[in-house]
Amino acid sequence: MFATFLWRLLVATFNWFIRALVLPPASTCDRVFACGILTSTGITRNNPEDRWQATDFVAIQSLLNCAEGQSFWLCGTDIRSGPGFLLRDPNCHRLGFDPPPFEKVFDTTGPDAYLKLNSFKSAYIRRVIETASQLTSGDILCLVICGHGLPDGRVVVGDAEAKTLLVKSNLEDAVRSCKAEVHLLITACYGGRWTSPYWSLFAAVASHQQPISITESHSGNFRGGVFTMCLLAEHADQHSLRVPKPDLWRLEKNDGVHHYFQGQQAGHGLDLRYFGQYLPTHRRLGRAPPEALTWLHELSDHVEKTYPSAEFTFVPCQQGTAWRPSFVDMTKLPSIQHCECRGSRSNSNVNNSGKAQDSLLGSFQADSVDVPLLSNEDKELHQLAEDHNTFLPPPSLSETMLAINCAALLDPDHQPRKRLTAKAKDRMLKSLQLRLTYRCLSLVIAQKLGWEKAIEDVGLPFETQRQLGPDIPLQLRAIENGYALDMLYSHKYNSAPWAGGGSWLARVWKAAGEPTIRRSDWEIVLTES
Fold it and tell me: Is the pTM of this model over 0.85?
């Protein structure tokens, strides 16, 4: 019996040795695990502004290309309805991406939406903990967050009507004991604030930025961001297509009104002229980075426009002979702001300013309605839109949609495809009214704080000051000194959380010498204003 056992052991050892010599080692792709969440729940047919987040979500899932059973992707809303996943091109009618279903959808609607959203968030954190605890030092764990971000780094889980918040410490605690190499990919505004000693960060924008490359197409739809651009460029390279060379948006003033213009598009291979079969090319080891990477790097910094009109849809190639993008290739893309920061951990400061903010918003908390505006409301809307267009803020995710709608309202012939619905006009009116209210409120606050000289030096908040942008780093510095300017942020009636309410006040605070204030004194000033 012992001889039989010894013989089997020798045979098993020999077979293992032969397999080790003949078979290739497990690919890096086989050791990549992913935990993805799409936090925005307002992605509906009637709300096209947030669909770019769903497009980025499916693009990242394809880029990571995890083996079956090694990833999960959670959504708080159905992402398969509507115009589909349209790849970046504000100037094309449809350039689609059609991946097979992979996501798990949670119900986050109804009168108990807040509780459901918290359960949705908790389910993601719990599954991250479960996944992280099972990995070894040779594995790679990718945490993926797609959604709206606030200037302090928190990510909104939900929509403008009902929401909770996902904070950095939630995931830091979840992967604290993880033995694998951890990466975090985030598409949200101010994503650079998610630097942590617990992971390497791949952020679409820096800690003080909103994406500026999210614009509306001629078909009235919105395209994905920088991660979607990566997928598109890698697809073009895979099929030996000429990579598009986009021209830039530029903002010009004509007769006192600002307009967006685009330049000429260079020729490329993604159009309707070719109807044959695109044959995939093999990816050669050691190949130099394709020209697509240079294009992506420039695009992520400056672009607003790309291809001409096209009807082109592709699906992830499932054939073993064709190259598919993998995580290893994506980590080398200079188009993504790759931060290797591994400094000391900072606790996320979650303030409870909701009640004070609700009292400030007052009547603006009413939902937008699909009822035509009254004549006086329509007149006010045109006046506010003209005023907004005269002092247009720098392009950003929270500003682009409003600027487009103002242009469509004031010059409908210039954008024949963009017809504003009654609900869109109502939402637009409330957004412009809210901004005017916050500008007036900021002035009153500055006067109550005794900053008259600083107001004189900076200028009033009603005209050219609006063209300077939110200046998030300065606002955060003021918040650290007791001035809770985040109470002047608004998620209502904007395509992304709007942080412009405190920008002028932050500049006045700086001109006043950057004084400090106790939070209780600040809240008194805010209430009295």
Answer: no
375 within a domain of the structure (yes/no): yes
Structure tokens at 127: 């599954």
Cα 226–chain centre separation: 9
**317 and 226 in one domain?**
yes
Whole-angstrom Cα distance, residue 301 to residue 226?
10
Residues 254, 109 within the same domain = yes
Alpha helices in 65-183 (DSSP H): 113-133, 168-174
Residue 258, classed as helix, strand or coil, is: strand
Secondary structure of residue 24 in the 3-state scheme: coil
Q: At 201, is the secondary structure helix, strand, or coil?
A: strand
Judge whether 19 lies within some domain: no
Q: Is 341 helix (H, G, I), strand (E, B) or coil?
A: coil
Rg (CA), the chain: 25
pLDDT score at 356 = 42
Phi, psi angle pair for 165, to nearest 5°: -130, 140
- How many Cβ atoms are within 10 Å of 348's Cβ, its own excluded? 17
Q: Which of 443, 434, 454, 438 is nearest to 507 (CA)?
A: 454
Are 242 and 381 members of one domain?
Answer: no
333 and 362 share one domain: no
State which of 316, 339, 362 marks the end of a domain: 339
DSSP annotation of 126: H
The predicted pLDDT at position 358 comes to 44
Phi, psi of 163, deg, nearest 5: -155, 155
**And the tokens for 240?**
């030996």
Pick from 385, 438, 432: which is nearest to 412 by CA?
385
Shared domain for 211 and 272, answered yes or no, is yes
Together in a domain, 33 and 108? yes
Which one of 339, 369, 394 terminates a domain? Answer: 339
Residue type, 253: K
Beta strands (DSSP E) in 167-207 are 181-186, 200-203
| CA 303 to chain CA centroid, nearest Å | 16
Name the residue range of residue 150's domain.
Answer: 28-339
pLDDT at 125: 95
**Residue ranges, the chain, pLDDT below 50:** 1-27, 89-93, 213, 218, 243-252, 258, 260-366
Q: Are 123 and 108 in contact (CB under 8 A)?
A: no
Cβ contact 63:325 at 8 Å:
yes
* 468 and 374 in a common domain: yes
Same domain membership, residue 411 and residue 358 = yes
**Burial class of residue 297 (count of CB atoms within 10 Å of its CB; 0-12, 13-18, 19+):** middle
pLDDT of residue 331: 39
Residue 21 lies in a domain: no
User: Which CATH number is 137's domain given?
Assistant: 3.40.50
Rounded Cα gap, residues 230 and 292, in angstroms: 8
| Residue 346 located in a structural domain | no
Contact by Cβ (8 Å): 415, 408? yes
State the pLDDT at residue 115. Answer: 93
Give the 3-state DSSP-derived string for 429-447, with helices as H, strands as E and coil as C.
HHHHHHHHHHHHHHHHHHH
* Number of structural domains the chain divides into: 2
Determine how many CB atoms are found less than 10 A away from the CB of residue 374: 9
